């Protein structure tokens, strides 16, 4: 086995969830027929409990576009999309890894504005939007469109 | 948390899989070899992303199955230092906490990284485990509130270090963990208060 490229690109949780869904992880309730292994199902179960399950490509693209003016690093964008901080105090650890450097380079970085952009563009986690658990997806429709319809931009 | 890795591997395709279309057969063998295994200094292999190139297919002398050289991309789990991850507590003892992501169980918070000030009390339910209690004084009244760090909450953590201990030669008591992620609570005081408030049953 040869590792040709140790790092061929970062993946956000949403992309991995999308990959597993495209293989049929969501539709197959018996978990036997889809070409998804048992360990992959464990990852799927984890991802479905995070904010990634409500996100769509449009959300991600919109966020990437609108956050360009903040000049965020890749790692920060990744962390923000994966965890969707909903308060200033949650945004702090993501942004302040090397405080001194940041203050010199980007003194005009407005955390509140960034937070508002996040709250506006990225959908909230499932525990905030729906009080009761989602029904089992047994229908033939594409799960993603169903989720996109249920999405309500919050606050 | 996840990244792609380009890997080249030589594998043998067993005869019973020869009736499948080639990419499917190859993927089946790759799944069996790599899924849910840790590659040293790379990470935990989660899933095959795509297959870039298949070559070979020759049967070598003395063997009963064709050998293929496959180049493919794989999704690997390895959080980078400073990343924020969300996990659940599964164990708590003298040295600190152990957390789980469902597919990965070896995330440790060493005791000194727990939010200070905190102390431990022996857990009434389980013999060798302890329960950590975090005292946080929100309004500086000198009367701190006590938050139980127990298994009900989800915790947001910042990754300090990912290590790959080498295979042990002798048998150890604990099952061997090929990949260890050490985390800490992010350093801002305010942050801790909000996070605990949010996840601790809505209090």
TrEMBL record, chain A:
Q: Chief subcellular site? A: nucleus
The cross-references to SMART domains, in alphabetical order and at most eight, read:
RPOL4c
| One Gene Ontology cellular component annotation held by this UniProt entry | RNA polymerase III complex
Q: Region (Disordered): which ranges?
A: 121-155
What is the name attached to this protein's record?
Answer: DNA-directed RNA polymerase III subunit RPC9
Please, which domain of life does this record's source organism belong to? Eukaryota
Localization: Nucleus
The family this protein is said to belong to: Belongs to the eukaryotic RPC9 RNA polymerase subunit family.
Sequence ranges assigned to domain RNA polymerase Rpb4/RPC9 core in this UniProt record: 3-128
Q: Name one GO molecular function term.
A: nucleotide binding
Q: Does the keyword Transcription apply?
A: yes
What the entry lists under InterPro entries is as follows:
HRDC-like_sf, RNA_pol_Rpb4/RPC9_core, Rpb4/RPC9, Rpb4/RPC9_sf, RPC9
- Compositional bias per record (Basic and acidic residues), positions renumbered to this chain: 141-155
Keywords from UniProt, A to Z, are:
DNA-directed RNA polymerase, Nucleus, Transcription
> Where in the sequence does UniProt note compositional bias of the Acidic residues kind?
129-140
* Gene Ontology biological-process entries: transcription initiation at RNA polymerase III promoter
Automatic annotation (TrEMBL), chain B:
One Pfam family name is SHS2_Rpb7-N
Presence of keyword Nucleus: yes
Q: Where is the RNA polymerase Rpb7-like N-terminal domain?
A: 8-64
Q: Which InterPro entries match?
A: NA-bd_OB-fold, RNA_pol_III_Rbc25, RNA_pol_Rpb7-like_N_sf, Rpb7-like, Rpb7-like_N
Q: What keywords does the record list, in alphabetical order?
A: DNA-directed RNA polymerase, Nucleus, Transcription
Q: Where in the cell is it found?
A: Nucleus
Q: Where is it chiefly localized?
A: nucleus
Asked if the Swiss-Prot or TrEMBL record annotates the protein with the keyword Transcription, the reply is yes
Report any one BP term from Gene Ontology.
transcription initiation at RNA polymerase III promoter
The UniProt entry's GO CC annotations, sorted and at most eight, read: RNA polymerase III complex
Domain called RNA polymerase III subunit Rpc25: residue spans:
83-170
The Swiss-Prot or TrEMBL record describes its family as follows:
Belongs to the eukaryotic RPB7/RPC8 RNA polymerase subunit family.
Please describe what this protein does: DNA-dependent RNA polymerase which catalyzes the transcription of DNA into RNA using the four ribonucleoside triphosphates as substrates.
Protein name stated in the entry? DNA-directed RNA polymerase subunit
Q: Which organism is it from?
A: Linum tenue
